[in-house]
């Protein structure tokens, strides 16, 4: 897991907000390290891989630790990042845009990698947020079994809730390796999802945002 300060209380509030909106992941909140280890061992055995092999013996333990602490740490809202808010003392009223936020997630259908970039913007009201916190919110919601549409909405609604403003925009471009590695095996396809709120729903503001996030712009 990336090292940063966590805020379980804030995470609980965000979780409740997303549950109320009906867009949280369908999980029961019970993370069982022993059960994960046993399940990985069963999977390996089912594939005919001997667990007594020196190279494999500790794999269930390693994978369980990796899943819980890194790959899927976003399933646990106790890991939600601490947010730093400051008074908007300069009265800044134009968009704040974070481009090219790289992330890795996992397709919940095949448990293979989704990799991509997020583009996030908001218009400050009375407060501004530390810029790195936008990256951390993206990373938190990426670190769970996901579908891209839901991840987009979770990031969007969480930021509206945290920033206390409707003026939020989120766009995600991602490559799904369940497409590149199986079936059609298309290595060039890029999937794009987005959600605009408040002033970003205005055609001109939306157009400006999309222009600014283009490659080699701003």
What does the average pLDDT come to?
Answer: 93
**What is Rg?**
19 Å
Low-confidence stretches: none
| Largest sheet composition | 5 strands, mixed
Strand order of the largest sheet: 5-2-3-6-7
Straight-line N-to-C gap = 31 Å
Tally the structural domains: 2
User: According to CATH, what is the class of the largest domain?
Assistant: Alpha Beta
Number of helices: 7
CATH superfamily of the largest domain: GTP cyclohydrolase I, C-terminal domain/NADPH-dependent 7-cyano-7-deazaguanine reductase, N-terminal domain
| Helix-strand makeup class | alpha+beta
Percent range of helical residues: 25-40%
CATH architecture of the largest domain: 2-Layer Sandwich
What is the number of E strands? 7
CATH fold group of the largest domain: GTP Cyclohydrolase I, domain 2
Q: What fraction of the residues are assigned to beta strands by DSSP?
A: 15-25%
> What sort of overall outline do the alpha carbons produce when their principal axes are compared?
globular
Order of helices and strands: HHHEEEEHEHEHEH
